[in-house]
Amino acid sequence: MLKQAKIRNPSPLIQYVHASAEQLPVKENSAHCVTIAFGLRNVDNREKALLEFHRVLQKNGTLIVLDFFPAQNSLFKNLFNFYNDKNGSVHFTDHRKPMISAINNVSREMTAGEVYCR
């Protein structure tokens, strides 16, 4: 994905980094923006990763997290769970069911996004 990102946006102003979210090889207060897409759920220590994002971000920098979080509204929560249950059991062949099931379980366990905003 990083290779594709570099091809699509070869800006010298953007540093693409493949690293552990818990230990970024980036100087303190050096980043305007930190992004993570569908990865925060897979980080062993989310708090450590968020502290690391904070460490590298400049004052008033932006953190963008794209991930699934449980819905707070019970109607949407039930729809989300229903869709994920059907997705894991109906739409995919047997060899993908364990992977989809694991993603669904982690998505349900994620803390609501507002908790990460301080």
Q: What does the radius of gyration come to?
A: 17 Å
State the major sheet.
2 strands, parallel
Task: Calculate the terminal CA-CA distance, rounded to whole Å.
Answer: 30 Å
Number of helices: 4
CATH 4th-level superfamily of the largest domain: Vaccinia Virus protein VP39
Question: What is the class of the largest domain in the CATH system?
Answer: Alpha Beta
The shape, in one word, is globular
Could you say what the CATH architecture of the largest domain is?
Answer: 3-Layer(aba) Sandwich
Q: How many β-strands, per DSSP?
A: 2
- What portion of residues is helical? 40-55%
Mean pLDDT: 76
Give the domain tally.
2
Strand content: 5-15%
Q: Which sequence of strands runs across the widest sheet?
A: 1-2
* Unreliable sequence segments: 89-100
Q: CATH topology of the largest domain, anyone?
A: Rossmann fold
Question: What would you say about this model in short?
Answer:
This protein has 118 residues and is α+β, with helices and mostly antiparallel strands. 42% of the residues lie in helices and 14% in strands. It folds into two domains: 2-67, Vaccinia Virus protein VP39 (Rossmann fold, 3-Layer(aba) Sandwich); 74-109, no CATH class.
Spell out the key features of this protein.
118 residues; alpha+beta; Rossmann fold; two-stranded parallel sheet
